[in-house]
């Protein structure tokens, strides 16, 4: 697969040399750079493309909102707080000035609403699909930065909200990035590792596993399945959809047993928190079914064990 | 024209509310944000699109280099020094993994070469043209930030290097952003206003005029015309081409008579500096021809005076 190949290639480039002021580089949800004087900034950059991240004909207000929310969800995954945003809009074949203004307004509004005022950008037209890039710049939250790489064997795996059916149910165009939830979780608990669910629970949880050098064990029964994954257009097994659909923009995090229990008991700012598994020694990741079957967890769901 | 309409619309949005920590927002080459604690960052975001900023078939190494150099040229225009960069690459219809790696390598290399290590980004594929967005983050240079808005009547207008024929001559794919020159100019002289020539000398100089609330008077004879504008594919009057072609990525700046004279005498880091005009009271901008004719300077060149 070209994308995985390319990401590996980029990681090799990144591994060759890391500037001393770069605390977190490629391989996490956002980069963390230390400025002369000691202040730190958190930065990330994300695209939404017509036909890939939204359907042709989607309203400009929804496109703008999604573009901003996606980038800010990466700041949430680091427990960072937003400072500002920049955007580059390729309007593609869209030539209607009113439509363009509506998209611009939506970007502006979403940036203001989520606490990252728009401070600059670039606009252009071309042939082809619309492509909106948003760069979000933030600051470490009060409890500091949470990375992907700190999960420890024995940790519990937790998730906010419920998963699956985000695209078929239209949530991917309406979600609010879990910025406040992430900061509150990091203030109340000792969060060892965190990521936002954009590619799907299994894929994103395996990112934590890989960066932390651990395995994961998911309990299928404990995964909170969103009603959108039960009904509507998508079809398929609801747990599989919760594992694979992606674009949920919920937070998955690893913390000790006690903190996980407390988070699950109280939730965070009105959003439920579920304990869905635990961190294992070694590199193998599993999903355990209600009938006791254990299957290897793969980035796109699961596979039958060979043995 | 849709783009001008849209830019006006964005400026109106920006004028409605400016966060107190935002020292420079939309309307300059880059934004300047003050962090809690007092540190300042400079940030800008720029796209290059296949068929708009480079021809289909352009080598990936040239595309990557141009994407990075363009964004960093905006930092140069503020006399900022680069810290880091992020990039979002939409590979469009390009599916060749080796080609993708070559573009990635070029982005990586250019970022390292120009002093803004690549710290993050996003990749995706879609139909349509290739689109590369680069966000450059910098810090104020030792002499602070230079804006577009400080030109004063009586200032001289100066430019580095020579202008015109950048696209027909291929310079737009090879240029080095004037980062070091900008910092040295700002350290040696009291630069009142500066911009990089991306849209064309007349257009960009009028940006300074507009932001500074002044007029400009250009001496046609004094404009340094690049050999690429004299020969080769483009055709047309060489001075007109130096005024309009754009993509020169030279620095245009306004400073007092004495500093301008000294800059023109010494150049900067081996690059010549030419005095090409002066700043006038009022909002009217002119170009003066060798035979004494005076014409109104327009964003796309010049127009016959109505009177």
CATH class category of the largest domain in chain A? Alpha Beta
CATH overall fold name of the largest domain in chain A: Phosphoribosyl-aminoimidazole Synthetase, Chain A, domain 2
- Count the E strands of chain A: 14
Mean pLDDT, all residues of chain A: 94
Structural class of chain A: alpha+beta
Helical segment tally of chain A? 9
Spans of chain A of at least 5 consecutive residues whose pLDDT stays below 50 are: none
Summarize the main sheet of chain A: 8 strands, mixed
Strand line-up across the major sheet of chain A: 8-10-7-11-9-12-13-14
CATH homologous superfamily grouping of the largest domain in chain A: PurM-like C-terminal domain
Radius of gyration of chain A: 19 Å
What's the end-to-end separation of chain A, in Å? 26 Å
Spell the H/E element sequence of chain A. Answer: HEEEHEHEEEHHEHEHHEHEEEE
The chain pair forming the largest interface, with residue counts per chain, is: A-B, 66 and 66 residues
Give the DSSP E fraction of chain A (strand runs of 2 or more residues): 25-35%
Oligomer: homodimer
The global form of chain A is: globular
CATH arch. level architecture of the largest domain in chain A: Alpha-Beta Complex
Q: Domain count of chain A, please report it.
A: 2
Helix fraction of chain A, binned, reads: 25-40%
């Amino acid at each position: 697969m070209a994308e995985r190949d390319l990401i590996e290639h980029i990681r090799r480039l990144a591994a060759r040399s890391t500037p001393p002021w770069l605390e977190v580089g490629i391989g996490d949800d956002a980069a963390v750079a230390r400025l002369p004087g000691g202040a730190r900034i958190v930065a990330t950059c994300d695209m939404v493309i017509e036909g890939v991240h939204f359907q042709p004909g989607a309203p400009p207000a929804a496109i703008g909102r999604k573009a901003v929310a996606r980038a800010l969800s990466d700041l949430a995954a680091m427990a960072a707080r937003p400072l500002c945003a920049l955007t580059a809009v390729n309007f593609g074949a869209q030539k209607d000035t009113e439509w363009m203004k509506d998209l611009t307004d939506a970007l502006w509004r979403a940036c203001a609403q989520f606490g990252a005022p728009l401070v600059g950008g670039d606009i252009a037209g071309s042939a082809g699909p619309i492509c909106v890039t948003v760069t979000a710049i933030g600051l470490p939250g009060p409890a500091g930065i949470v990375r992907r790489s700190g999960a420890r064997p024995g940790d519990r795996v937790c998730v906010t909200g419920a998963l699956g059916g985000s695209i078929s149910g239209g949530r991917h165009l309406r979600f609010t990035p879990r910025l406040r939830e992430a900061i509150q979780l990091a203030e109340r608990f000792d969060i060892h590792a965190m990521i936002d669910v954009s590619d799907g629970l299994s894929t994103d949880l395996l990112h934590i596993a890989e960066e932390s050098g651990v395995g994961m064990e998911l309990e299928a029964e404990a995964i909170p399945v969103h009603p959108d994954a039960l009904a509507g257009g998508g079809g398929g097994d609801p747990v599989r959809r919760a594992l694979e659909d992606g674009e949920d923009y919920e937070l998955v995090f690893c913390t000790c047993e006690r903190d996980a229990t407390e988070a699950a008991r109280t939730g965070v700012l009105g959003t439920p928190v579920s304990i869905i598994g635990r961190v294992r020694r070694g590199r193998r990741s599993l999903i355990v079914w209600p009938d006791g079957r254990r299957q290897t967890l793969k980035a796109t769901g699961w596979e039958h064990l060979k043995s």
